[in-house]
Amino acid sequence: MFDHHPEPLGKLERLTQHLFLLALFSVCFSTALTNLFVGLSYISFVGVLATSAPARRAARSLPGMLALGLLALFIVGASWSVGPQADILLALKKYSRLLVLPIGITLARRDGAMADRALRYFLAGAAVLALSSYLVRFGLMPTSERGWWRVGDSRDAFAFRNHITIGIVLGYATMVCFLLASYAKTASARLAGVGAGVLFAIPILVLNQGRTGYVALFLGLVTLFLLRARLTPLRTAAGLCAICLMFGTFYAASPNFKSRTDALIHDVSTNDQHSPNGVRMSFMQTGFGAVLSHPLLGTGTGSFSEIYAPTAAKVWGAGTLMALVRHQPHSEFLLVAVQLGMLGLALYVGMLVTLGRSALGPRTFARDNWALLWIIYVSTSTFNSLLWDTTEAHWFLLLAGCLYVQCRQQPHPTP
Fold this sequence. Notes:
mainly alpha
């Protein structure tokens, strides 16, 4: 159990905390600001470790050590990589984000209010992202002459982030609001929570075209139901049927939902290698083949693009644009296994498992909230490379350390 009464924070720790929270606010809508605040957090945190013995003690945690171990293996894995130097350096840059996790754990252990503040900052940033989708839908979203942000159209009303990222981030924001409503003490608070959740959900179900968001919402609702309902066999069956019926209604009522779902069914049934889902299947086949050929240590950091290049040339034809793209497999578990083999995959899964275990125990808002984030991240990571992607990686790692500590600090009843 973590210390419930840490020593007071110093000025440098407060500065690091503010930078960390600003990164969490920015992650929903600005890569540049996120990278700026995270980078400044790194610099400030080095000073914290150098000057604060309590912070050095707080930095010791099993998930944090596993994250650092995984990063170290990626660094060492560059020595046996079959990928070109540019791909290796890109991978190392991306996986350096693992440093965010131990920073978040340290800050949250040093300040018990950190998790609640982190959640508020995230929801504020998510509100900016959701509002931008509504503005795009009604033609009110300004564009950037310098190309600093992208803007979709009325058929796919995205801004700042693509529809995959919007679905994941707003899917979790929706679940947080519904969870808050379930814990609310008054009818007005419950209504406010449900209303905010609906406003976060509409961009996913109606305004955007991201299938990942549908999965995040569906699994989030199922998880929320199982966590908060007083379960009996009849209630469980009725609740799950109601959720499925609700999504069937969305399929019938939302043109985006219907067209994207129909496209998925068509791609899978026809096995079209040139379709988005056909390409994902070829990623899986090539990736599993690479893991079977190099099961222990993989083919090295940043190697997937090189491993997949012959398949890309075969599918699209040598010299074509798609054949020259440096692909990644859109599955974080497979991507880690290809690069670092079973050893790297064990470290990654171990990090997730040690984080997720803190959600076990008597049900509280903190544990339910962390369970929702963990389920949404892990499930969508099976068919998206979330640790590889800038926004999703920062979103999860910035929140994960704070929510993990908050759950660990929840009291357990004595036997």
